[in-house]
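Bumping with the actual sequence this time:
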Amino acid sequence: MTMRSSLLLVLFSLIVRSGSPLSIAKKPIRWGIVSAGRISADYVQAISLAEGAEQFMHSVSQQATAVAARSPTAAAKFASQYKIPNVYNSYADLIHSSEVDVVYIGTIADQHVELTRDAILAGTPVVVEKPMALCAQDAEMLIHLAREKDVFLMEGMWTRCFPAMKKLRQILASDEIGRIIYIQGDFGYNMINNPPDDRIWLPTSGGITLDVGMYIAQFGRIAFPGGKVKHVHASGTMKNGVDCSVMATVTYECSENESDFVDQDGMMQFVLTGAANTEERLVLQGTKGRVIVDSPFHTPQRLRVLRDLGRGETSETVHNFPPPEDPYGKWNNPGSIGFVHQIHEVGNALRDGKKQCDCFTWDDSLEVAQILDEVLVQVRTGGR
């Protein structure tokens, strides 16, 4: 082999490992699954649907081809159940394998930072379940590292990938309901009777805020593009050492110049609770009307646009976004079939050589982490 041939071979191997357009445009994207838990099982089922779903016919092909778990036995059982061909004895072995194009990290949140950092340093594109990190400082570190190493990184905010969310952005950009004044939403499910060893009671990563708070907090950057978080006020209750119920208000300083409205601040208010199953609906109120994201808003399938005709009078337009056909019927978590939308977005981003997804960027992740940081500090200390 000549020196020129050797150099070309090295260059090609680096291109393939980096997840560039050249490396994946002609072959299926191979997912490595880090953890064999319930959320990973749902994700693998969704990978199997992503290519077959009608709306994804022009998307890149994707397959779950490898898995690792806390024990080789658990990984082998998972692989057998979901027909995954390759089993690795450790997370590190999978992350460093040349047989995967992207890893999905579905472990408990306490492990997210270390495993994501390992993947980035290995040059392996990574999708990590939310929260990406348990504090904004660690999230910022991971983002900085991904930028420095030029590696794809996405926090798994799958809600942003749903077709309904893309339509919501279009509605807001069109000025159909005017400038957004406030967002109001709730998210709650009854966790009170969860067993003592459930992840929700973990002292570092447990509690309702780090479990579901990001679902509402991420709407701020949609409703107030270009706005900056000005204040966060939060209060709540604790149970077993973690936050159980939370009420928070986030104030945004917005940069738009509206002649008909002096106060340019926007507000986002949300309630989170682990003590009750709530409606889980979200409202974006504008100066000309409102958009209601119907329940369950974290897997949105219907938007209702109400335009003001006068006080107490509105006209309504409904936008429906039914989920893909479901050959499984059984999922560990409600709505998990919606993972197909995130998988589709990641596949397209990798095919195009991007290092982050347009639907949920690194800046989005960082702002959400900063909001949740402040919420948790105030709830745990009884407010300021």
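The tokens above came from a reply further down the thread. The longest helix spans residues 362-381.
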